[in-house]
């Protein structure tokens, strides 16, 4: 690390803003490669975070590759039993499939940050700052951090995205989620997913070691009274409705086709990388953080930091394609006239369910899943699927 000529200036190869899964993955990947990395977050860890805390097999595969451990060292419930409901109808129980790992985000994030710091990233957590996008300079309480490249993984409300694009997200497309932590737990209970618990969204009940997480999420523009929907969902589950409720925006597949500008790359929720069907964000966060860091590594090795964003966009193409397919499938699932066909297909087709779980495990993508589903849907849906 070189000391700047001005007092209280430090130079790095890469600054990572935001230390959630995307930021921690980016910082660790870059630090392991030998880059001098500053990891910045306005909060200290552990810190509370609204999230269902479901880690899919796909996400766990990314974790193992990036962080080198079989599982994060946090309390996890491993569940391979799933109870599905669709628009109030029981779609059946599925068992013995690829598991979902269930844990608390405050524990997961703290562990990922510690692993990034252990890899050599410099710790600037607990410090908010002002970003100068022109000079790639971040000022923290009088200390100036300067780097040729910045990865911003600062969440769905990303201040960096607002600075670059004028807004962090499109309010007409953004999702919103509400969540409650119930103290009662039953780690033998199945994961429950209710399609349609919110309009163009779903509800979830996740059993964990410390309690049960219950929530709903859907497209915000279609849900004028999400609190009432959550209350109705808890009532359906015979759970009390008097516990504190947390809320957060959810970028349901409303990703940025170019996730950044100049020498600043956006990753995770800041880039809109959340699956619009499953609501999964952790897996995409880990992968995008890694890909952004590898793009930075490649560009800096060629002394061409201006090329990092192009490298990153290229690496993200498969992820963006999967999210486009998922948005098309959501368009079919939640259209009222197609709802009966979706319910029949999901209830009766074991193959369709198997493909769904293979998707969550990272063994297949949305394209093959949708082609399998196409033969079970009416002509209108086939028009939607045309070109897949």
UniProtKB/TrEMBL annotation:
Classification via Pfam families: FAD_oxidored
**SUPFAM superfamilies assigned:** FAD/NAD(P)-binding domain (SSF51905)
Supply the Gene3D superfamilies for this chain: FAD/NAD(P)-binding domain (3.50.50.60)
Q: Which InterPro entries match?
A: FAD/NAD-bd_sf, Geranylgeranyl_Rdtase_fam, Geranylgeranyl_reductase
Extract the PANTHER family matched here. CONDITIONED MEDIUM FACTOR RECEPTOR 1 (PTHR42685:SF22), GERANYLGERANYL DIPHOSPHATE REDUCTASE (PTHR42685)
Q: What is this protein called?
A: Geranylgeranyl reductase family protein
């Amino acid at each position: 690390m070189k000391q700047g000529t001005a007092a209280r200036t430090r130079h790095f190869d890469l600054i990572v803003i935001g230390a959630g899964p995307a930021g921690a993955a980016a910082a660790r990947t870059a630090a392991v490669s030998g880059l001098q990395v500053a990891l910045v977050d306005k909060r200290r860890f552990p810190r509370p975070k609204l999230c269902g805390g479901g880690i899919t097999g796909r996400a766990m595969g990314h974790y193992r590759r990036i962080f080198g451990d079989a599982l994060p060292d946090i309390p996890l419930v491993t569940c391979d039993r799933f109870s599905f409901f669709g628009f109030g109808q029981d779609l059946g129980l599925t068992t013995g499939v690829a598991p979902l790992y269930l844990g608390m985000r405050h524990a997961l994030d703290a562990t990922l940050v510690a692993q990034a710091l252990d890899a050599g990233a410099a710790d600037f957590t607990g410090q908010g700052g002002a970003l100068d996008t022109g000079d790639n300079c971040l000022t923290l309480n009088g200390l100036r951090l300067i780097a040729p490249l910045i990865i911003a993984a600062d969440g769905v409300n990303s201040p960096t995205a607002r600075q670059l694009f004028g807004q962090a997200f499109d309010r007409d497309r953004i999702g919103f989620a509400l969540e409650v932590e119930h103290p009662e737990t039953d780690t033998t209970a199945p994961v429950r997913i209710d399609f349609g618990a919110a309009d163009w969204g779903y509800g979830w009940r996740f059993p964990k070691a410390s309690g049960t997480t219950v929530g709903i999420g859907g497209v915000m523009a279609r849900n004028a009274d999400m609190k009432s929907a959550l209350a109705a969902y808890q009532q359906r589950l015979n759970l009390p409705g008097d516990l504190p409720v947390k809320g957060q925006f959810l970028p349901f597949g409303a990703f940025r086709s170019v996730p950044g500008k100049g020498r600043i790359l956006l990753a995770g929720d800041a880039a809109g990388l959340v699956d619009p069907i499953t609501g999964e964000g952790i897996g995409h966060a880990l992968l995008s953080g890694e890909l952004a860091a590898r793009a930075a590594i490649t560009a800096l090795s060629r002394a061409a930091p201006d090329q990092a964003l192009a490298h990153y966009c290229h690496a993200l193409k498969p992820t963006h394609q999967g999210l486009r397919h998922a948005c098309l499938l959501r368009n079919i699932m939640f259209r009222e006239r197609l709802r009966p066909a979706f319910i029949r297909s999901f209830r009766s087709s074991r193959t369709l369910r198997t493909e769904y779980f293979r998707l969550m495990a990272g063994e297949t993508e949305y394209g093959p899943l949708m082609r399998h589903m196409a033969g079970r849907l009416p002509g209108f849906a086939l028009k939607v699927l045309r070109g897949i």
